[in-house]
Design goal:
binds nicotinamide-adenine-dinucleotide; binds manganese (II) ion; two-stranded antiparallel sheet; 12 strands; alpha/beta; ten-stranded mixed β-sheet; 344 residues; binds 3-isopropylmalic acid; 2 domains; Isopropylmalate Dehydrogenase; 12 helices
């Protein structure tokens, strides 16, 4: 039997509940399709930080490196640990150290789900740069706490980083509707985003079969709401992509529907799969978090591992449940998970 090792990191808040749900669904689909998912559960989280003074052990990255994939819930418990400490201690180093440069986030309305828009027929694949740009972490503060304080945080865009994410987008567009939207802000950001545009143009010449349109991030935000059906593949920088994909989640019906894959196409590194949403402290512990984003992320993991029919099976089960209108009924996390398991 084909076996895949998976590092499971539920994390904080609703991350714990939705990861448990996703794992049940993954196991069931794996069983049906004759594959074995071998999990190792890691308690790395804000609780772990409060006990050990770090979000994961020093050798955490080396430990994770041994796995075929990582399934993550959500990280962050701002009431007890500052977000910059928790995220820079766990989620962001995983993305950066395994060079998971493509953060792929699909946005489409599942059958039966009532989104906030009149237009239901959108199918957007957002591809977010995931290792550099506005998240490079280059900067510092001087004269801290004094009136002379200065804080700098430098966006770093490399030709290598920009070219590979755009190329990833062009390749994805080729397999879809052959339309690529490049998200820019070169009217205001005259170095990084002008380079981004130039690289977009160079690649556009290499992919004459793909129709390319450039949109400034502000106009793109409006387009997500007004004309989402005009979009196919959307490629954006780290921060622009972060913001756009919460908007993408909103038009899908809420944060509980948006899945994501953090990919490095090199199988020597474990790619990481997680919902777009965070730990949602406002609803944590209430058994009301929507598990579909996490379950869908699990399906993206199976797809990445080459288990396409097991992945499709999960999505079909999810859509049979949403088609019955169950997504709109404020069901508990457990009840929705049980319904999906039942369909599987
Ligand atoms: P959030 O995504 O946790 O929550 C935003 C809103 O969406 C909240 O009202 C929440 O209740 C709702 N929501 C989120 N997921 C839901 C689900 N599955 N079902 C139903 N409703 C859902 O964003 P936030 O409040 O800005 O952040 C909370 C914490 O999570 C912070 O510590 C933040 O840094 C962290 N965070 C982590 C990740 C991650 O680990 N990938 C992502 C985003 C935020
Ligand atoms: C996401 C999250 C993270 C990000 C945070 C928690 C650092 O919002 O995955 O979208 O900004 O990338
Ligand atoms: Mn985000």
């Amino acid at each position: 039997m084909k076996t895949y090792t998976v590092a499971v990191i539920p994390g904080d808040g609703i991350g714990v509940d939705v990861t448990k749900a996703a794992w049940q669904v993954l196991e069931k689909s794996a069983q049906k399709h004759g594959i074995h998912l071998q999990p190792s559960w890691f308690p790395w989280s804000c609780d772990y930080y409060l006990k050990h003074g770090m979000m994961m052990p020093k050798e955490g990255i080396a430990i994770l490196k041994q796995f075929n994939a990582i399934l993550l819930g959500a990280v962050g418990w701002p009431a007890q640990v500052p977000d910059n400490v928790s995220l820079h201690g766990l989620l962001l180093p995983i993305r950066q150290q395994f060079d998971l440069f493509a953060n792929v986030r699909p946005h489409r309305l599942l059958r039966g789900v009532q989104g906030p828009l009149r237009e239901a027929a959108f199918d957007i694949l957002c591809i977010r740069e995931n290792t550099e740009g506005e998240y490079s972490g280059a900067g510092g503060r001087i004269h801290q706490g004094t009136p002379q304080e200065v804080a700098v945080e430098t966006s770093i865009f490399t030709r290598h980083g920009v070219e590979r994410i755009l190329r990833f987008g062009f390749e994805a567009a080729r397999k879809r509707q052959k339309r690529l939207a490049s998200v820019t802000k070169s009217n205001a950001q005259k170095y990084t985003m002008v380079m981004w545009d130039e690289i977009t143009d160079t690649l556009a010449a290499e992919y004459p079969d793909v129709a390319v349109t450039r949109y400034h991030i502000d106009a793109m935000a409006a387009r997500f709401v007004m004309h989402p059906q005009t979009l196919d593949v959307v490629v954006a920088s780290n921060l622009f992509g972060d913001i756009l994909t919460d908007l993408g989640a909103a038009i899908q019906g809420g944060l509980g529907y948006a899945a994501s894959a953090n990919l490095n196409p090199d199988p020597a590194f474990p790619s990481m799969f997680e919902p777009v949403h965070g730990s949602a402290p406002d609803i944590a512990g209430k058994n009301i978090a929507n598990p579909i984003a996490a379950i869908w992320s699990g399906a993206l993991m199976l797809e990445h591992l080459g288990e396409t029919s097991a992945a499709n099976d999960i999505m079909q089960a999810v859509e049979r449940v949403t088609a019955e209108g169950l997504g709109n009924q404020a069901l508990s996390t457990d009840a929705l998970t049980t319904a999906i398991l039942h369909q599987l």
